[in-house]
Amino acid sequence: METIWFGIVAVMVAVYVVLDGFDFGAGILHLFVAKTDDDRRTIFAAIGPVWDGNEVWLLAGGGTLFFAFPRVYAAGFSGFYLPLTMVLWLLMLRAMSIEFRSLETSHIWRRFWDTVFFVSSALMAIVLGAALGNVIRGVPLDRNGFFTGPLFTDFQVGAHPGVLDWYTVTVGLFSLSVLAMHGALFLRAKCEGPLRSGCARAASLLWVAVIILGVGSTVATQMVRPEIYQTVFSRPLGIVLVAVFAIALLGVPVFLKIGSDWAPFLASGVFILGMLAASATGLYPTLLRSTLSPANNLTIANSASGSLGLHVGFAWWIAGILLAIIYFVHLFHTFAGKVKLSDSGH
Amino acid sequence: MAMGSVGWNRFQFGFLATFHYLFPVLTMGLALLIFVLKVLADRRQDEAYDDAAKFWARIFGINFVIGVATGIPLEFQFGTNWAQFSVFSGGVIGLTLALEGMFAFFAESTFLGLFLYGQKRLGRKGHLFAAFMVFVGSWLSGYFIVATNAFMQHPVGYAVAPSGMLQLNDMWAYLLNPWAIWQYFHNMMSSVVTSCFVVCAVGAFYLLSERHREVAERSLRVGVAVGLVACVLIIFPTGDRNGKMVAQYQPAALAAMEGKFKSGDRADLAIIGQPDMRNHRLDNPIFVPAILSYLAYGSFGASVEGMDDFPSSELPDNEELLYFAYHIMAGLGTVFVLIMGIAFWKLWRRTLFRSTGMLWVFMLAFPFPYIATTMGWLTAELGRQPWVVYGLQRTDHAGSPLVSGGSILFSALGFMGMYFLMGTLFHYLIWKQIAIGPLRGGIPQNAEH
Fold first, then answer.
1. What string of pLDDT tens digits covers the 346 residues of chain A?
2. How many CA atoms lie within 13 A of B373 on its CB side?
């Protein structure tokens, strides 16, 4: 049962990154690909009806982590106190920028919120990558199962690293490029005309950046945590996931060349899902690794909730996820097709 | 006064929760009213009801965004600021928080997108259904949060694991905690009353300024009819049962709420008076004899324990504020019934829309339900002290062990700045929407471009 919940938490976080990832990507790109106000409004209209639902995956993922592994939730959230507080500020600024931008016609008002949207989205993309970097690298968990992560120390990966060090910043930049590409592919599918071709060009360029930074992150991970690769490749599921995400990433430019609307975006979604799932496979059964001593690791064995709770929770979760899937299919189906400015509030 | 990390934790959580709740307290009730307006528009084929629904949907949308933006920090707070509480009780309360995400937030957020942006794509019935689902989602969300809070007030359905952590032992006992059920209905009725007063305030403002008569009259009609029922339900049975549960399970909180120092039977109910904690008495009090015994235990002769008979380690640590929070809530609740009662009588007599005095009262009354609900939650949360989970874990032992007071203050100051910005924007945007007013036909937002 603990293993199932490990999988549930990993999947919910990964789905969050795929879904809200394209919102962040749209935020990172919109200053560059959309020059006119109508183009900007088209981008806001593309994500307007869905971004809030996407963000809920983070809350639901956090809720499942809290429920299934309270020790990990408590250690992780209190350990990353300042960065998480800043994440909250960024998410608030992003919400305001999307919803309030088009309520006024003044170009100063809109320029202000456009910039806020860009900055908050770009920082969120970096933070998500840095968070993954921290989980892979490990944190200085003490014997009581707590740690404190200063924002930065000496930028080295030692026993007492900061939240930002050379490794996590590298992964953060990788994440920035991945989500920017993902957002470009989403907007390309939703938009028409010059906006679509601009997004396609941006996606091709970003794909090269993804490859370069991806190789860099892979090498960096090999230097920091070589054993994670041994774990991934010792598990059949890990090998399958690595193969899937590698093929999906290579598929992105191929599908772009063919000119399909949604195939490149779906490929990049599969790439992100596969990569995060492969990372989770490499970490399992550890949820949070201690840099001080393996005995302090928080694993599914020493941090899970009681068995009755996990069992009834699982039944609820199945019902909840089925409903959520129905809602999302309905939502995306209703707003399927190209964005039309006339039927949105943005 | 040294706040320490526990003090700053409480300061931050209190600030975030209080500010946040100003928005859902309106949107939960307003979701119901919008749904009622949509149904009336459909049944009576009256387009003015639809105009009213659309106007209130715009107000709802802005409130909802701020509610979402300020709600996310609260779920994070459990982990960031209250880590020991999370470790201790996550195996139980994590269930309702996870259920809230899975069952309420997904419904609410996806159908809100459909409701606000999908009017053209969904058609009439589809749009009505989206409004209904937003209502269901937000009311479910309310239940999961109140059930979580009820466990902290009156823990049931749990067992203590060998590790010392709480774990779920009886799911239905936990989900159907009697405290949760009464507190939920009390809370939801207060949310409905808040939205009714807001709807009536804007309706009254339009009538007094002789604009948007059709929408104003329909808003007032729905606001007064629903508001009167909800006002009465707040006091009886929900408020009454809440009070009796406090008397039964948190007698120390009851003593502090009522400003009761000495134990005794035939206990007097203090209507006004300021608690003097040094001399253990109320200044310039007005008492109603024996009523407290009756309200708390159903008998005029029942004995009520006073604060003097509890050890100070068992008493809530902010007795004065608890006393006033409770008295302001209860006093305002009584006034609301009077206002809504008179208004309903005038509506019945068909004189409400011409009654300038009554319209002035409505136009100015809308802040008071916000004050009353805030005071209600202050009563619940201050009354729970000094426990974070009543009788099981003390608030002093609930914080994050390694997060310093300085870090908490830093985040609290940042949140205050952020919320100041949000509050300012909110006021600007809401007043603007009220100035624009309802629009006939089309999608209102487009008129701004």
1. 889 999 999 999 999 999 999 999 999 999 998 888 888 888 888 888 888 888 989 989 999 999 999 999 999 999 899 989 999 999 999 999 998 888 888 999 999 999 999 999 999 999 999 989 988 888 888 988 888 888 887 778 877 888 888 989 999 999 999 999 999 999 998 888 888 888 999 999 999 999 999 999 989 888 888 888 888 899 999 899 999 999 998 888 888 888 888 899 999 999 999 999 999 998 888 888 888 888 888 889 888 888 888 898 899 999 999 999 998 888 888 887 788 776 555 5
2. 30
Model's pTM, two decimal places?
0.91
Q: Encode burial over A97-128: b for 16+ CB neighbours within 10 A, e otherwise.
A: bbbbbbbbeeeeebeebbebbbbbbbbbbbbb
By C-alpha distance, the chain A residue nearest B126 is A334
Please count the other Cβ atoms lying within 10 Å of the Cβ belonging to residue B141: 22
Q: Give the whole-angstrom CA distance, residue B138 versus residue B100.
A: 10
Chain A: give the shortest CA distance to residue B87, in Å: 5
Kindly give the residue spans of alpha helices, DSSP state H, lying in chain A.
2-33, 37-47, 51-68, 70-79, 81-100, 107-137, 166-190, 193-224, 227-234, 236-258, 263-283, 300-303, 307-334
Tell me if residue A147 falls in helix, strand or coil: coil
DSSP SS3 for A320? helix
Strand B269-276 to B281-288 pairing: antiparallel
Helix (H, G, I), strand (E, B) or coil at A145: coil
Contact B91 A100 (CB under 8 A): no
For B363, half-sphere exposure in the C-beta direction (CA atoms, 13 angstrom radius) is 16
Domain of residue B70 covers: 31-176
For residue A55, the one-letter residue type is E
Residues B65 and A99 sit within 8 Å (Cβ to Cβ)? yes
Cβ contacts of B57 on chain A, cutoff 8 Å: none
Q: Which phi and psi angles does B366 have, rounded to 5°?
A: -60, -25
Q: Is residue B41 part of a domain?
A: yes
Residue B114 in domain:
yes
B170: in domain: yes
The verdict on residue B410 lying in a domain is no
Domain borders along chain A are 2-343
Are B68 and A52 a contacting pair at CB < 8 A? yes
Q: Which of B83, B106, B168 is closest, CB to CB, to A324?
A: B106
Q: What ipTM does the predicted assembly reach?
A: 0.89
* Contact between chains at A306 and B159 (C-beta distance less than 8 A): yes
CATH class of this structure's domain A2-343 = mainly alpha
Q: Which of A50, A66, A77 sits opposite B94 (nearest CB)?
A: A66
Q: How many domains does chain B have?
A: 1
Query: Can you give chain B as a three-state secondary structure string?
Result: CCCHHHHHHHHHHHHHHHHHHCCHHHHHHHHHHHHHHHHHHHHHCCHHHHHHHHHHHHHHHHHHHHHHHHHHHHHHHHHHCCHHHHHHHHHHHHHHHHHHHHHHHHHHHHHHHHHHHCHHHHHHHHHHHHHHHHHHHHHHHHHHHHHHHHHHHCCCCEEECCCCCEEECCHHHHHCCHHHHHHHHHHHHHHHHHHHHHHHHHHHHHHHCCCCHHHHHHHHHHHHHHHHHHHHHHHHHHHHHHHHHHHHHCHHHHHHHHCCCCCEECCCEEEEEEEECCCCEEEEEEEECCHHHHHHHCCCCCEECCHHHCCHHHCCCCHHHHHHHHHHHHHHHHHHHHHHHHHHHHHHCCCHHHCHHHHHHHHHHCHHHHHHHHHHHHHHHHHHCCEEECCCEEHHHCCCCCCCHHHHHHHHHHHHHHHHHHHHHHHHHHHHHHHHCCCCCCCHHHHHC
Q: Which residue has the tokens 């959580």?
A: B13
